[in-house]
Amino acid sequence: MKKYFAYILVLAAAMNFASCNQDLLETTPTDRASGSGMFANANAALVPLNGIYRLMYTQGWSTTGNVQQCDGLTAWNLCADVMGDDNIMGATGSGWYWYDAAYNVKSRYTSSAWRSYDLWNGFYTIISNANYIIAAGPAMGGAQEDVDYVVGQAYAIRAYSYHMLASFFSRPYLSTDPNRLNEKCVPIYTEPTGAGTPGKPRASIGQVYAQVRHDIDTAVLMLQNAPKQKHKTHIDYAVANGLKARICLTTGDWAAAEQAAKAAQTGYTIGDAATILGGMNSLKNSNVMWGAEVITDQTDGWGPILYHMDGMSMLALGTQVYGFSAPKCINLELYAKMSSTDVRRGWWLSPDEAIAKYMAGDAETAAAFTENVGGVNYIQDKFRFSDPSQSLGDKMWMRVEEMYLAEAEAICRQGGRDAEAQAVLLNFMSKRDPAYTCTKTGTALGAQTYSWTGSLLEEILIQRRIELWGEYGRLFDIRRCGQGFTRTAAQGWPTGLQINATRDFNDPNTWAWVLTIPQAEFDGNESLNQLVDQNPVITKGQPDDPSVIYVSEAE
Question: Of 481, 520, 528, 513, nearest to 176 (Cα)?
Fold first, then answer.
């Protein structure tokens, strides 16, 4: 039986992942790992575990042409960020991330070069590798705390991966709508997979999140008495709780989200002005919980995230990178929510400020820059190369600031605890704006993200939007909050990315946010029927036959 798995065992490839062709989709026989001893004990198992993390920040999940925007976790977060309302693509550039922002990728599911293939291939490959470590856990040798350190991380990785797949390939989790939890999500694999493994059908959203919650709870339990991070790329007890906080916010388990967010803060400090204005490029900072360290011999040419974000640091070297021709800008309405004393205003520069800072005395470059940005306002200067001459800059996947904001939100949503939520928010904001005050109360949210209500919950979310701009994936929060959004010229959006007759961003039940499953999965997985299992290609309205979106009782 022909079989498609985007989840190959990548024991060797994890350390030599330069190839970016369709061979990634071929199943590697499981006997390649047999007898290798890689899972014999906890110390040996660190090799495949580190291989998984290497996959998280390596190019190659799609094929030639789009590898520049298929750079692992940071790329997938940026994809979700530009699909939202706050991170504005100031110009088309070469099209990288523009098509995500324009919602012009759903119809490209037959190609191995586009986002559907990129995400599906990437996360299922990571899941497959995690499954091998989990399966080896009961027989793995070594001290129990060391085994827990390795296997607990594998459970956390699997939980995070299914959570992210659900965030891209299904509609939002809505605990208040029982029908929603019966909608189709993604196939679940919890055992090692090989050439003869039958493909699975799509599980429901409820089933996927039951697996996610089981895995992250297991990870937290195993990592509680395990060693702390051997490297910030690893998931330890604090980071696992950070992932649990994200998951619980998504599913509306506010008490668990509060508890997890508090546990995640231990050992980290909120970054001061000097720290957060330093380019957001170093894992050494005490506010960074999880990320990837980039060293000179591991840079991936022109694809890493800073080439897309930092358009100006390399100008002094006579080099223009992609961020110069396709600058990332902040929504003007969100920018206006910061007071003049908020240090985070330094994360964005007006075109004139950018020219003065990076192009003073270089009239030719300044003219080219002005032509590129046109009428764009407030270009990002938040993310910068740590060493432009070497293309260096670490990739951050979690900061402790997120955990304080998650705690404040979770407390607020439980009701009757406004004073406690205010206190957490004020503690955080004291590091951002010395003049900040907040006496707001309540949990009211508008139907649209810019239908302001003046509630405390809205205020917490505003500060979250500002703080996590460009790094978390704004669309994830929009989805879980059950809001729609608008894009207007007054906010700074170019015409090509505004709402039009074919796009439906203002409906929280939209299918525009749901990616299509790659054709390669249907070609090889006999448990999937493209006629009933493919997500609607539409970006406006509802499918003609709503019954096809549900998991049947037989499944």
Answer: 481
CA distances from 179 to 107, 148, 205, 206, 253 (A): 26, 37, 10, 10, 19
For 131-189, the pLDDT digits (tens) are: 999 999 999 999 999 999 999 999 999 999 999 999 999 999 987 887 999 999 999 99
Q: What pLDDT score was predicted for residue 280?
A: 97
* Three state DSSP letters for 306-334: HHHHCCCHHHHHCCCCHHHHCCEEECHHH
Model confidence band, residue 486 (pLDDT cutoffs 50, 70, 90): very high
β-strand pairing of 395-399 with 348-349: unpaired
The first and second tokens of residue 278, run together, are 């330093």
pTM for this one?
0.94
How far is 248 from 52, CA to CA, in rounded Å? 24
CATH class of 13-236: mainly alpha
Higher pLDDT, 11 or 473: 473
Q: What is the DSSP letter of 193?
A: -
Assess contact for 493 and 438: CB atoms under 8 A: no
CA nearest neighbour of 483 among 172, 274, 254: 172
Q: Phi/psi at 105 (nearest 5 deg)?
A: -130, -20
3-state secondary structure of 387: strand
Domain ranges of the chain: 13-236
Q: What is the pLDDT of residues 30-57, one digit of tens each?
A: 333 443 589 999 999 999 999 999 999 9
> In terms of Cα–Cα distance, which of 73, 193, 202, 72 is closest to 131?
193
Strand 395-399 with 379-380, pairing: unpaired
Q: Residue type for 330, please?
A: I
Contacts of residue 19, Cβ cutoff 8 Å, sequence gap at least 6: 13, 60
DSSP helix/strand/coil, 290: strand
Contact of 138 with 21, CB cutoff 8 Å: no
CA distances 99 to 116, 304, 528, Å, are 12, 18, 27
Instruction: Output 207 or 369, whichever has higher pLDDT.
Output: 207
